[in-house]
Amino acid sequence: MKTKTAIDIQKLEMAASRLRAMAHPMRIAIVELLTDNEKLTVTEIYVHLGIEQASASHHLNILKNKGLLESKRDGKMILYSLRIQALTKLIDCINQCGLH
To answer: For position 38, which CATH number holds?
Structure first.
């Protein structure tokens, strides 16, 4: 007799939402840039990636809203950094799928 696996729809939706947020080359580039630099401003990010400020802000907001980045105000600047635990959980989830 086959055992039915319980599916937590809320967790599934959250994982899918985070994966969609990461499924863009520019957002992957931002995560990679922040992996090499602990904290960066939006200006540092858009200059380094050679994109418009509005585009960088758009991608940063998507990543932040999905819980993959955090921001902290430092005077007039906002510094962005990775939420390592959230990214680690996302990577673990992908690894458990058995996709290579």
So the answer is: 1.10.10.10
